[in-house]
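Quick board copy: two proteins, each given as sequence then tokens.
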Amino acid sequence: MSAAVQVGIGVIESDGHVLVGVRPPGVPLAGMAEFPGGKCLADETTRACIVRECREETGLMVVPRTHLVTTRQQYDHGIMALSFWQCGLSPDLKDLAPATNSFSWVPFASLNSLDFPSGNDEVLKLLLDFPGSPS
């Protein structure tokens, strides 16, 4: 059995909204909704990965606060260990707008209408059971 790829994912919340993007064409699960994040580098914690990936993908500086859940998911492109962290924006951040059009702020209540990959099911259940959470 092959080792799972470690993935750090940030559930970035601000004022009752969460940052959600759409996976680009040409990548696995293209067109599906996603939270910012990505594969961990060698010897990188999922927490550090989220900070790096969010900066690269959105231009925003985030502060991981609470580990929400880690799930293991088998996709066609491999086995992923998905670590979801509740994150806030850096306190000194002046602009809340992501630097790219592929991410936008959506209300927590709208998450159930988006098409996320199945590896997100457990964290979505947590988020939708507690609207406005995690805070």
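And the next:
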Amino acid sequence: MTTQATHVISSEALYNVIKNEKNNKGGIFTIKSKLTGKDFTYKIKRSLFKNVWYTHIFIEQGYMEFNHMGTYRNGRIFKRGGEITTPAAIGIGFVLFKTENRHFQWLDHQAEIMHAGSCLLCGRVLTDAQSIERGLGPICAG
């Protein structure tokens, strides 16, 4: 059985994901609270509809099986007009809000953000140490 290594990255990498994700499969990452030890694995996909970009959040329900949680907006997750208030939704909404406001250092003291060896934007396998450490390949990081 092969296991895939997980790499801790700065929350700054998520900024690019929520603003620029372009992989139709979505950017996959895990967030683990340093305070509680609780973790959730998410996938973020972006879509353009009537000239407006939407950030869709998916939550892992089984190994690499993701269900649509809702759409991210201003620190909250919404689905069909209503706010989702599960711990996973509150957690990702908070993390993305802090990320959008560039509170990277503060957030990195509160949580570990991990990826499984693929670029969070385009999905390609990362092969060099610097790309693995930042979670983005050289083209997507530029």
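Board note added afterward: DSSP finds five helices and eight strands in the chain.
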